[in-house]
């Protein structure tokens, strides 16, 4: 089974930057489409960004121009560089994977998930 482990979360001030990482298992990582989602208590899990093996990407409107998703297939890792952070970015961030090349934005499209990493942005 594919296993995902996130890291890099923390407490920062508005306007600061943070880089999240996701370490993945498996021998076919390069063929998996990967994504970042976030969730706050009482709200639905929200799509943030996604990337496939061909480096095609997708971002939710609220993070365009501020966040950058990338991957390193040799290291089987996924990253999310977050710049100009805002208080509304505060959430538990999750790494997700699907064993197909297509980029998707719905949580139900991803069968593999990490445990999450907390990001708190103070004003």
> Which stretches are poorly predicted, pLDDT < 50 over at least 5 residues?
none
Proportion of helical residues: under 10%
Structural class: mainly beta
Write down the overall mean pLDDT: 95
Q: Please compute the radius of gyration using only Cα atoms.
A: 13 Å
Number of strands: 11
Name the shape in a single word. Answer: globular
Instruction: Report the major sheet.
Output: 7 strands, mixed
Strand content: over 45%
Report how far the terminal alpha carbons are from each other.
40 Å
How would you spell out the order of helices and strands?
Answer: EEEEEEEEEEE
User: What's the multimeric state?
Assistant: single chain
Helices, by number, come to 0
Please render the helix and strand layout as text.
Elements lengths: L3 E4 L2 E4 L4 E7 L8 E7 L6 E6 L5 E3 L7 E6 L4 E6 L8 E8 L13 E2 L3 E6 L1
Parallel strand pairs: 2-11
Antiparallel strand pairs: 1-3, 3-8, 4-5, 4-9, 5-6, 7-8, 9-10, 9-11
Please describe what this structure looks like.
It is a single chain. The protein has 123 residues and is an all-beta fold. Helices cover 0% and strands 48% of the residues. The protein is globular and about 40 Å long. It starts with a strand and ends with a strand.
Quick overview:
The protein is an all-beta fold and about 120 residues long. It is built from no helices and eleven strands.
Task: Write a concise keyword list for the protein shown above.
mainly beta, 123 residues, 7-stranded mixed sheet, 0% helix, 11 strands, 4-stranded antiparallel sheet
